[in-house]
Amino acid sequence: VQLQASGGGSVQAGGSLRLSCEASPKNLDITRMGWYRQAPGKEREFVALVRWNGRSTYYAASVKGRFTISLDTRENTLYLQMNSLKPEDTAVYYCAKGSQYGTQQSDYNVWGQGTQVTVSS
Asked: What was the pLDDT predicted at 73?
């Protein structure tokens, strides 16, 4: 079981990035998936989650309206579209597979390796 995150990079404030998280094997159950992030010197925090075929989503207040989480079950890939990025969005972003629906880290039992997002002012 593996989650491979990609798509991070450096962008100026106001810009956009799209993160991807490919799950393997292809028949892995990804009906509960989430994104977390960890900024330097801070705890890892919840960003967004999606359940089932993308019909149920939930966002942290700090990203709601700017970020969109989505799921392509045919490709077994999770996405995070990030728009209107701010310097405070700078962090390592992790995708995770949930064992149950929730925002606590303990709700997730498989984690990707993380991808760096840097937003400059």
From this structure: 82
Q: Which residues are CB-neighbours of 55 under 8 A, at least 6 positions away?
A: none
57, 50 Cβ separation under 8 angstroms: yes
Tell how far CA 63 is from the center of its chain.
11
The pLDDT, as a whole number, for residue 54 is 65
**Which one-letter amino acid corresponds to residue 58?**
Y
Closest CA to 98 of 26, 3, 8: 3
Task: For residues 86 and 89, give the distance between their C-alpha atoms in angstroms, rounded to a whole number.
Answer: 5
Residue type, position 70, single letter: S
- The amino acid occupying position 103 is T
Tens-place pLDDT, residues 80-91? 999 999 999 999
The residue written with tokens 């962008």 in the block is: 11
Q: What is the DSSP letter of 15?
A: -
Instruction: Tell how strand 115-120 and strand 9-12 pair up.
Output: parallel
Q: Chain-wide mean pLDDT for the chain?
A: 94
